[in-house]
Write a structure and sequence with these properties.
This protein is of the alpha/beta class and 413 residues long. The protein folds into two domains: 202 residues, 3-Layer(aba) Sandwich (Rossmann fold), CATH 3.40.50.300; 118 residues, Roll (CBS-domain), CATH 3.10.580. Helices cover 38% and strands 22% of the residues. The chain has 17 helices and 16 strands. Helix 8 links the parallel strand 7 and strand 8. Helix 5 packs parallel to helix 7 and helix 6 crosses helix 7. The chain is elongated. The chain starts with a strand and ends in an 18-residue tail after the last helix.
Length: 413
Amino acid sequence: MEDKITVKNLSKIFGNNPGKALEELRKGKSKDDILGEMNHKVGVHEVSFSVRKSEIFVLMGLSGSGKSTLLRLINRLHEPSGGEIIIDGTDLTKLNKKQLREFRRKHFCGMVFQNFAILPHLTVQENVEFGLELQSVDKETRAAKALEVIKMVGLEGNENSYPAELSGGMQQRVGLARGLAVDADILLMDEAFSALDPIIRRQMQDELLEIQDRMQKTIIFVTHDLDEAFRLGNRIAIMKDGKIVQVGSAEDIISKPADDYVKAFVEDMDRSAILTAASVMHPPEDTAFIGDGPRTILRKIRKKGLTGILITNTRKELKGYVRAVELADYINQHKDSENIPMDEKLIHETAATDQNTPLSDIINLYTEHEYGPIAVTGDDNKLKGVIVKGAVIAALSESYSHPENGKSLDKNL
């Protein structure tokens, strides 16, 4: 997927001599050193990352980590002390004020803030139209667009209401609608849902995900809430002291924390809700084909030391599971026969899932199915991998890391 935004060595130092402070940082001085010795505050220090087109990229960290400062740097609400901000091939740090205004109008939907930032003297529709009015869009066009996004965010029927007449969740929807109405590529959201109560917050998260599914914006979302970050983010950047310490999917961060800070950050997360089948599956020790004879299948099972084996056709489409003990008994019953036909009753249905299934659901599958491992298949029913109980148990422990390709955690499939 192509990158929409690329940030290179971006810094922001608050003070009278940011260049000197930046030099001292590069020499090894800490954020606290710069504050104590120079009375300069380090907001962001030489941060580099990229945001892919149409993804939700979450910046998260504790208060003071630099996440909101970084967001404001991206559209130059804060002027950088150093570095580059490249959007669709244009470096924003090289633009003059007039060029920057034009660029913002074309590329940024605007910002959605924690405190809603809607105008109290304007109605819902007038608030939503506000950004379009600044762009000199004609009255009829902006009214039509405003009504469209008002309906999209679930505020239809409230067009003529004033903010004071709305609940907190409805006010936040107005802010979101105003950003979406501009119809540009990039939406910046700074702690947008943190002032809402938990139920409304969850509803707004759902709303954002549904809207994103339809509109495919490039969204940078700031939060200090790990659950929210993992729920919304395609990828997450965890910040500390003005720097990014890790970028990755929720699964990456849970299973492979970059350092002790990240590990401590995620230690209370429900791993079973974050990790998926893809993170715990591994290649099967072996498979048998639907046309193989009983003796051939048993030979494969014994050679690998398995308790059973998955059966596929020659196109690797999953057909079921055969247990070693049942197969051996069947062969023993027909030991005097030269060619033993395969009894279809020996091929049991086995649990199958796709790579995106959460670990919590996989645990349930183990309790519901009697035979075999959990098979991981694609949309075409072709076998991608297997999940054994040992891998599930290991994944729930903090020390878990993804099994190496080809290495089984447990041969007792």
